[in-house]
Each structure stands twice: as C-alpha cells, then as structure tokens.
# Entry
Amino acid sequence: MKRKILELLEKNSKLTAEEIAAMIGSDESSVATAIKELENDHIICGYQALVDWDKLDDQERVTAFIGVKISPVRGEGFDRISARISKFDEVKSVYLMSGSSNDLILTIEGDSLKEISHFVYNKIAPMDTVVSTATYFVLKKYKNHYVDMTEGHGEDKRIQIMP
Amino acid sequence: MKPVSKVADEIKPSGIRKFFDIVSEMPDAISLGVGEPDFDTPWHVVDEGIYSLEQGRTYYTSNSGLMELRQEICNWYERKYNISYEAAKNCLITVGGSEGIDLALRALINPGDEVIIPEPSYVSYVPCANLTGAVPVTIDLKNENQFKLTEAELAEHITDKTKVLILSYPNNPTGAIMTKEDLEPIARLAIENDLYVISDEIYSELTYTEEPHFSIASLPGMQERTIVINGFSKAFAMTGWRLGYALAPEKIAKLMIKIHQFCIMCAPTTSQYSAVEALRNGDNDVLNMKESYDERRRYLIKRLENIGMPAFEPLGAFYIFPSIQKFGMSSDEFATKLLQEQKLAVVPGNAFGNSGEGFVRISYAYSIDELREAMDRIEVFIS
# Structure
C-alpha cells in the first residue's frame, strides 16, 4: 500500500488521505497512518509546488546546473564537501554523479545570471577540495517532474461533449 | 427540389447536441461529458506512426488491412479472451469501431429484419439499423439488473423476424459488464432462435474485476454467429487515429470486406502501423491507464455516495451512471440546470435511449483534480 500511496503523492501531493483511500480501496485511517509513517521515516521529505517562474512577468528567475570537480579526501570521500555545499541556501540540490567529468552536479536558482555566477565564483570555486566548476544555465524548461512545461500543454483538446 | 432520402431525413438528431452548443460558449464550464480517454496516445505508438511516414509508407493497404496487424489482432484475441481467429479469413481493419458496426449491420440485414438493441447504449446502433431498412427493437434495461440484459427481457422481444442482437459490454453509458454466467443464457437464446450477435467490445480492456472481459463469441456455438467489433480508441487512447477491427465468421467477413472495399477502400495506413506497435508493446500502457481509471472510478463512487447520488458500481468502461430521480427533475432538466447554475456538464441519460431517463452519465476520463472540482460543484448544486 505504501508504494501505491507514494506513487500517487509523487504526482499529486494535494491528494488527501480520504481521497487516496477511496482511490485505492482502503480506509482513511490506514492511509493517514501510512502517510504519517512515511513522513516520520523521511521517505516523504516534503510537499512543494512545482512553479513555472518563467510565466511570472515581473520576476526573472534563472536556473543553473553546476558541475563540480572534486579532489576526494582519504577517509571521507565526497561526503564532507557535499555536506558543506548543501548548507548554502542558494543550492537547490546536490547529486554525486557517475560517468561525468564532474563529480557533483548542483542545481542553483537565482534572480539573475550574475547572481549565480557570483555565488559559484565566490563560494563554490574557492572551497578546499574543489578542483574546477562548470556552470550550465538553463535556457528553457520543456519538462519538469513529469509535467510538460511547454506553452499550451495541459489544455483539454477533446471535444467537450461526446456520446 | 426532389425530396431527399426519407430514411436519412427521419433519423433523430443526437440528443446531446444542444448541451454541446451551450458548453462551447461557456469558457469556465467544466465538462464530464467526454467519451474518450484523457491520456495521449503512448509515445512509442505515435513514434511508430511517424517512422512509418518517414519510411514513405503513405499508400493504401490491402482492403482488409495490413496482414501483420490482422495477425497481431488475432494473437491478441487468443491471448486475452481465448478465441481463435484466422487473420486471413476472419479479420478486417475498419475506420474505428463505428464503421464495424455499420458494416456488420449492412452485411446481415434485409429490409424488415428486426434488430434488438438493449438500451441505454451507444447512440449509433439505432440510426445504423435504420439506414439498412431494419426495424430497431429496443429493450429498456433496468437499473435493478445493473443494466445487464436478462434472459427474460431478451426472450420477450424475440419474434420470427428477429435477426440480430447488438450487445455492448462493457457498456457506454452505464459502465455495466456481463460475465460468462450472464452471457450463457443469452447465447442459448441466440442459438435457439438462430440470431446473429454483434458484440461491440470496444471497452474490453477497461474492466475492473479480477476476471478479464469475457466475450460472448467464446461460448460454444457462438463464434459462428457473432461479429466482434473492437478497436484501438479506448484501450490505447487512440480515438483520433480512427482505427478499429471486426472479427467475424468467414462468410460475413467477406461481405463486410466487400462493402468496406467500395465505401472506404482501406483504413488509414499510418494508424495501422502504429496499431501494430500498440498490440506488440502496449500491454503496460493499457495497464497503467486502466489503473488510473480505476482510482478515479473508486473516487467517484465514494463521492457520489457521500453526496447522496447513488449509482450501481460500474465495472467497465469509464462512465458512472447515477440516478437523479429523487431530485424530481428529468435528466434533461437536471443536466441543463447543473450546467447553468454550476457550469458543470454531464450527459443526460435519455440521450442513450428512453431507459436512460432518470440518470446522467458522468465520465471519469479526467484527472482527480478535475473530478474533485466537479463533485464539489454537484454537491453545491444538490444542496
């Protein structure tokens, strides 16, 4: 049941326990208990809105992926530097990667290209074991978290009344 | 000017037309009136169509359709519903299930023959029967039987002129299904009275029971008198591709192919290539969509129950058919008021036959967020 609940919530976190219970043929209290457990175990780590900032006229919002090459330290590998990088509020996510010339990939959101560049230049690049950084700015978001972000998507294109 | 065709002229226009007109001028209305999936066609299926175009497969296929598609359909029917057909003899590809219904009736009917049509049902059976010169004999199915056709109801309507019985389960608009046990007595009557059965199984993949869909053609003595109509629209979310098929005894299939050859030539080639991909690699798509429909179905049942608009549990298709009798309005009045007051469109049950009066059809081919909003509006409307 937990797996099913997670699948449903991952796509739509607004579903209530009552609704999920109806959808999967369970009862509300069992679902509520399961969700509580998933939250306590940090399997459900949060509920957030998926925002398309580009549609907001008065506010520019820039997303960048930052590749970070690290010189790993004996005994602590990448964990210590990753934990330090994660502490910055500006950093949205931190992933350790395989198959890339970068060891870590960070995502950062900021109000301008300049703001992000400054942050990388001043905060990430000078860190002890950071060998190099590469900044990739996002030009356009086509799809994010299963959602097609392109213009006009999500409209119901069906004829509204059909036998 | 000389008069136009009397038969065509006398066909009753669709009862839902006026709702369509109102809804289309109400930009903030939400509609639960749609009869097609809300999912896009699975991408690998679309991609195969695009690839076929890139390969220059832009010509007619054989009249009865691509052999590899017909073979996949026969494999599918054997694998899913335990009926063996020969691709070369029994299968033809049609322009949607709709064409199959028309062809089957035209292949079977002589003017004056009676066609039994249990209602509520999809809206094309009566007009298609009319066009062949048949006499449509409708049966008013009952809510207390969960809108299944019973042996007694059928027996009561058979005369010496009866030639065809049209069965459509899983059913649009009621969501009813008929199990093997339900179909056995019907098959017995069909055999005793030498009736043909047109079994419209377009929703066959959308059933919400442990047992898969059961086709009446798989009962002993029935394959030789049954024309199965099916297609890709509902199972694979391919309504706009206009692709269906018929599985019929060889003699009837030949007649249907003959009519199809002169009227249609062949079904769209691009769609046929896509459909091959759908049947070969689309099982998971069907399962995932079905799971979503099932979640919504359960959600709606619960909400309608809480609101006080009970419906029998629909076990197939993607419709629920609640009774609105206790509100003292006709289906038309209910649907019109709901649309005017709450800007929510549902289809009045009488659009699907007289016995649909007192009910409305609600489609759950919508996201949960849309269904929640719609149910909230119905709740306000009722109270």
